[in-house]
Amino acid sequence: MSAEVLVVEGLTVYRDAYVAVQDVSFSLEVGTDTAIVGPNGAGKSTLIQAILGILPRQSGDVFWLGHSLSRRGALNARVRQQIAYLPQNFLFDRRIPITVNELVALGWDDLGPKLPWANQKQRRLAVRQALERVDALHLGSQPISRLSGGETKRALLAYCLVRPRRLLILDEASAGLDVRGESDFYQLIYQLKQEQGWAILQISHDLDMVRKHCDRVLCLNRLLRCQGTPDYALSPDNLVSVYGSEFVRYRHQH
Amino acid sequence: MGLRCTVYGTRPEPPPRKPYTVHRTPLSPMLSDFTRVIELFQLPFMQRALMGGILTGLMGGLLGSFTILRQLSFFSDALGHSALLGISLGLLLGMSPSSVLLPFAVLFALGVTYLLERTRLWTDALLNIVYSSSLAIGVILLTFVGQYKGGINSILFGDILAVRQGDLIVSTVLLVVCVVFVGLTLRSQILLTLHEPLAIASGIAASAHRTAFIVLLALVVGASIKAIGVLLISAFVVIPACAARLLSRTFTGYVMLSAVLGALGAVLGMVFSAMLNLPSGPAIVTMQLAIFLVAIVVPRTRLTAV
């Protein structure tokens, strides 16, 4: 099997009438941590949603672990299970009655038709182990509506962890956390990355965090402006081409 | 509609008794009401009505639990109101309402879904257009039909006492379909309700599921219109589910409780209707409201400690 978890070739995505993402190509290797950076409206979330099949794409090809994502967003179910996705601002409706145990269990199941009580024992065990690893076992029977921001993120990480995965996709995963919560969250993520051998693809606004942790950076502003190591991709010249000169002057003053 | 039926002479064993009016003495009104209710429920049409109520309550509660969380309550309301158009179209074409309602409801639901996806208007505004205009056109069409034997009242508020064997069979089959569908796809349904992009990223065919659910909801509404009426049908979908939401912590428990409360509301409502000689559809909805009000009060005293 190739060392690439994900290959994207010439991806173009329209949102309504405008081009949100144009002719983007890149690939992700096993066990690496790649950040997508770029200003608001640069198409970062659109890119991620298109490679997951949530949004339709205009043209281009997407291969997950060597399997092609169909035009209509269909992908081999076994491949799907190896990808975990944490959407931006996971703002589910807090009026929905569901406990942390139930939420995490949803990540464990393959979603074909089956009896609700099938594999109950294995599911419970997997949920327990996942919650243990994110230090949230005590939250299991809590309804989600009662969780704090940090607890919610841990529950969602348990949802990702409950089944072995190859790749974790984070869309501004730390949004909504305070400084302390954010640093705890990333510490947990990188600890789990070590343990699980995950590759990570994340959207981030925190360029310092990106410099510290990521192996590769994709600078996106509709087009892929540059990609490479953080030192190269986040050099002042490249930042100007992605964010515009105003932003870079601002960052140098502070 | 209502229970204004004469019960004299319909009881199987005839011990000589005074007429019913005499039972309503100030001495034991409760007891006489109770025996009267027992006697009423020995009549086949009352048993069918009770069965029909329970089946509708179970289906409404089951699908309603997802309907309210997906913010489709108003959709079920619009579907119910527009059934009037289906009924009058059927009458105009000389077909019986029962045979028209199911296909009409499904086609209508799919059409409205298409419209909602096509236009960029607010869902509630668009649904308002859909249901008020179909009510209007339906009423105009009815004027061409002439005298409908059930009368407009029975279309608006239903006639649960006119439920026939065939209606019960349709409802039973539909209930089985609902239970099997929701049961086998429960986890996909939960994930879709919780967060649709996440569900798609996990490989769930969201639009196929959405269509399947809406078709099922339309069938349930269509099958229940005759008994409950176009105005009150959405209560069966919304009220038990809201009451169950107030009393539940887990999702699975919530779905099951919603169905159970739907059935409970139907049973209590039928008894209430028989006792006080009230029209049965409104009586059931009133009992659903009572259950909902109890559910508002209960968690503060008991469940918050859990």
Automatic annotation (TrEMBL), chain A:
UniProt keywords, alphabetically: ATP-binding, Nucleotide-binding, Transport
A Gene Ontology molecular function term of the record: ATP binding
InterPro entries cross-referenced by the UniProt entry: AAA+_ATPase (IPR003593), ABC_transporter-like_ATP-bd (IPR003439), Metal_Ion_Import_ABC (IPR050153), P-loop_NTPase (IPR027417)
ABC transporter domain segment(s): 6-247
SUPFAM superfamilies, A to Z: P-loop containing nucleoside triphosphate hydrolases (SSF52540)
PANTHER family: METAL TRANSPORT SYSTEM ATP-BINDING PROTEIN TM_0124-RELATED
Family: Belongs to the ABC transporter superfamily.
Protein name in the entry: ATP-binding cassette domain-containing protein
